[in-house]
Amino acid sequence: MAQEQQQAQPTEDWSQPPIEYFSDVFWTAINPWSAAVTFGLRMVRPGELDTPKIRVRMPLQQAKALAVILLRAIRRYEAEANLTIELPRQLLDSLNIPPEDWERFTRT
Predict the structure, then answer these.
(1) Does 15 reside within a domain?
(2) Is 43 helix (H, G, I), strand (E, B) or coil?
């Protein structure tokens, strides 16, 4: 775990904190060379469109490593807080995640 955190530290100057964004919606795009995740804000009034705010692009290898590291971090948090983060069925449906995929993901 310490090695993951150490590798995740950037080598740039940290005299200025990074810009932080809040996102409650995201889109993904994958091609043979890279992955892109666009983060945005969910609409608040009927007829409004979700608003993209920032896009992060990375090689597929980095995206896959990020997915594993995020999963580990979330599982560690759940264990330390003694809770399970659940997703409502409606949200899973809207993300096109079938029940069997979610079950497999939460068990591994």
Answers:
(1) no
(2) coil
